[in-house]
Each structure stands twice: as structure tokens, then as C-alpha cells.
Amino acid sequence: MIKLSRGDRLVLASHNKGKLAEFEALLDGTGVTLVSAADLFLPEPDETADSFDGNARLKAHAAAKAANLPALADDSGFCVAALDGAPGILSARWGGPTRDFGMAMQRVHDEGAAALEADPHAWFIAVLCLALPDGSDVTFEGRINGQFVWPPRGTGGHGYDPVFMPNGEARSFAEMLEAEKNAISHRARAFKQFKDACLPG
């Protein structure tokens, strides 16, 4: 298992400022300093793998090699049983070139049609990959199950949050406070595994 130490620098293989802020908060108190791929002017590789695990690995290894530092990447998506797991790894692309998630949610609804009424089961998956410059890596997967709801509910969150209601909840992700969602989310579940295995206590 790969173990980071206090004082280590860790590259977040993302140019997304919101994701950087989220991971900085998760790393608070660990003694590990997070630096974004954008700050190091690292290019973003094309996500050409056919799985969340593959895309997370691809991004983490590209950043680790380019920066010669440990790198952390995540790949995540929204999956719907009635669509055989789609949009899945293509979740962002369903929003088109402008990443219009209103359009993406409408597409899920339209393509699912009657099948969604019979089986609204849906889930979010996040895979984190920690890679080292020597080519070694470790991955962690988080998943949260729930159901697709229509019409979209709530104004918080991002992406597909307004159409996802986790099991045991009466609210969509977008109706929850950010802290409530982050406590149970797929990414939080993957991060807890990563923290327990790889971060200093």
C-alpha cells in the first residue's frame, strides 16, 4: 500500500477549482499539501478508458509522471439501471460541449421513458486513484445507491444532483446542504478509504 507522509506534496489531477477546494477541505489536518494540475500547468489527458477505474488511473499517472510527485485523480459518474448503467463514464458528455446538465438530465428522462417508472434505481460512483512517479498506484471506489426522481428537485449541488434521491432520504442531493451531501456521497466514501489507507494519522 502507498503511504503518504506529513509534508508531502500531492498533485490533484484536475483543473476544476471546485474539486480542488473540496479535496483541500478533506485533506485539512493531514499535513499533506495539495497542489492542482492547473497550478503546475499540466495538460489534461483525454479520458479514453472504458471504466471509471481506467480513467482515474490514466489521469493520476499522467500527472504523477509530469510533475514527478504523487498524484490523486478521480473519475465519477451517474448511472441509471433503466439505461443499462448509462450515462456512466459519459456523464459529463451527455451535457454536450457546454456541459449543460439540464440538458443531460432531460436526456436521461427522455431515453429512460417508461422503463424509469418501472425501475427508477440509480447510483453515483467515484473512483480515486493515487499514483506515484514510479508507476505504482492504488484505487478506491465509493458508491451510493438511490433512485432517479423527476422533475429535478432543489437548487444546490451540481451535475445530476437534482434528479438523484439517495436511499433512506426524502430529499434529492440538490435539496441537501453541501455538508450533508458530502458526508454520504460516493466521493466521500471513496475518500474515506483513501484517507484510512494512505494518509498520515
Task: Provide a brief overview of the structure.
The protein is α/β, with parallel strands linked by helices and 201 residues long.
Record the SSE blueprint:
Layout: E1 9-12, H1 17-27, E2 33-36, H2 52-67, E3 71-80, H3 101-118, E4 121-131, E5 137-148, E6 164-166, H4 178-184, H5 186-198
Parallel strand pairs: 1-2, 1-3
Antiparallel strand pairs: 3-4, 4-5, 5-6
Task: Write up what this structure looks like.
This protein is an alpha/beta fold and 201 residues long. It has a single domain, classed as Maf protein. The chain is 32% helix and 22% strand. It has helices at residues 17-27, 52-67, 101-118, 178-184, 186-198, and strands spanning 9-12, 33-36, 71-80, 121-131, 137-148, 164-166. A six-stranded mixed beta sheet has the order 2-1-3-4-5-6. Strand 4 (121-131) and strand 5 (137-148) form a beta hairpin. The mean pLDDT is 93.
Number of self-contained structural domains? 1
Reading the helices and strands in chain order gives EHEHEHEEEHH
| Low-pLDDT stretches | none
Assembly classification? single chain
User: Which fold name fills CATH's third level, the topology?
Assistant: Maf protein
User: Helicity level, as a percent range?
Assistant: 25-40%
Q: What is the highest CATH level, the class?
A: Alpha Beta
* N- and C-termini, Cα separation: 15 Å
